[in-house]
Amino acid sequence: MAKAVIVGGGIGGLATALSVAEAGHQVVVLERADRFAEIGAGIQIAPNGIHALDALGVGRGARQIAVQMDELRFMDGVTDRHVTSLPLTEQYQQRFGTPYLVVHRAELHRLLLDACLASAAISLRSSCPAIGYEQSAGVAAVVLQSGERVAGDVVIGADGIHSQIRRQLVEDGAPRVSGLVVYRTMVAMEEVPEELRLPTSVTWWTGPERHLVHYPIAGGRYLNLAGSRYTTSREPIAGKPVPTEFVRAEFAVMGPTTRRLIALGSEWKAWALVDRDPVDSWVDGRVALLGDAAHPMLHYAAQGACQVLEDAVVLGRLLDCPAADLPERLTRYNAQRRHRTARIQQVARQSIQLWHASGSAAQIRNAALSAMSERELHDHIAWMHTPPMLQPVHAG
Predict the structure, then answer these.
(1) Domain definitions of the chain by residue range
(2) What's the predicted TM-score (pTM) here?
(3) Which residues are known to be catalytic?
(4) Tens of pLDDT along 222-270?
(5) Strand extents, DSSP E, 208-325
(6) Which residues pair with 237 in a beta bridge?
(7) Phi, psi of 73, rounded to the nearest 5 degrees
């Protein structure tokens, strides 16, 4: 039995703790905050993420707290025209093996936290900000801000986009501020006019240099609203309160339905969207990165949570080995995950052109999407929504 030290108590860190504990190891999770909690609102979980949750033993619980979607609905947010919908019902579920779900981020985090608390193999420590790591023969240790060293056989950096473990391991500086800002809020569903609720749809309203996405969360009690806008700002804001009037002005060029939806919101908060360029390696001996610490991506492919869950499952399965083999298995984990995650990072960036087109470019986009059949739409996203952990993880 080996010991794994995981830095970061978010969704990725807790999922990894469950996966590595299942492989027969002791795990300690170090969280910098004074408690284990999650901020944010809704996240989408495609079948690859659901299969990962099943592998972690929390899939049933996730289905109970999530809302199942029947379509990904694409609207022209300027003309209010329905362009196309990607169905998520019978043919989709037969092909990918599970529904497409949306869930409140805090509820998913709580589900994973409860599972970790129930495991005798997992120890959770809060108020433990990490500043780096050290290695010697057969040992890796996390260096805490207090000066304490927390040693184990492996260290996993799951400490997010501003990872201190990545800062030392990759040495690539601060994240890239994209210029895109997302404004988020939640609206109680009883306050939403019935014709705007679309309770089984993830709906996008696209426009020039901006778009709005909405879907129900928290068992359908709230409508999650997230509007993105391209700006020239490179300020790395996170959770900054924004006046309602400002958000309305940002989307004033949109059509009447988008403006009605925006008008429902209050207590808006803004985040600058950041990511990083893909790297070939996020492993150093007995230390590895995971999730946003390894491959942060813009949210436009709706795959951030799914990819961190995939990471956790693949890593846990590979670490089902003696302690002496752990460094080689970390190298294999990096090799198995880097190409897929890099491709999704690039797709997320490129999809800005899809969401933010205007004029003739928007007309060409609408014509191309509306001409696609259900099968063609499913074929287009199949490589992302098919879970790689269903393939042999010890190969290659």
Answers:
(1) 3-69+99-174+277-351
(2) 0.94
(3) 215
(4) 999 999 999 988 888 999 999 999 999 999 999 999 999 999 999 999 9
(5) 210-217, 222-230, 238-242, 268-275, 283-284, 287-289
(6) none
(7) -105, 120
Q: Which of 35, 24, 41 is nearest to 305 (CA)?
A: 41
DSSP string, 217-231: EGGGTEEEEEEEEE-
Q: What is the phi-psi region of residue 179: left when phi exceeds 0, alpha when psi lies from -120 to 50, beta otherwise?
A: left
SS3 12: helix
Q: How far lies 344's CA from each of 1, 216, 218, 301, 359, in Å? A: 34, 25, 27, 7, 27
Cβ-defined contacts of 378-384 (< 8 Å, 24+):
378/86, 378/91, 378/92, 378/95, 381/46, 381/86, 382/95, 382/96, 384/46, 384/48, 384/301, 384/303, 384/306, 384/344, 384/347
Structure tokens at 20: 């590595």
Using CA of residue 134, residue 140, residue 142, residue 143, what is the dihedral sign?
negative
Cα–Cα dist 266/257, whole Å: 17
Dump strand ranges (E) for 251-365.
268-275, 283-284, 287-289
User: What is the chain's length?
Assistant: 396
DSSP code, position 15: H
Q: Using CB atoms within 10 A of its CB, is residue 86 exposed (0-12), middle (13-18) or buried (19+)? A: buried
Question: Which two structure tokens, joined as six digits, stand for 333?
Answer: 């984990």
Are 159 and 308 in contact by the 8 Å Cβ rule? The answer is no
Residue 381 CB: number of other CB atoms within 10 A? 18
Nearest to 78 by CA among 390, 355, 382: 355
Q: Which of the residues in the chain have pLDDT under 70?
A: 389-396
The helix or strand, by DSSP H or E, that contains position 132, with its residue range, turns out to be strand 130-136
Q: Which CATH class is domain 3-69+99-174+277-351?
A: alpha beta
Closest CA to 222 of 191, 197, 186: 186
Sheet containing 283-284: which strands, arranged edge to edge?
122-125, 26-30, 3-7, 154-157, 287-289, 283-284
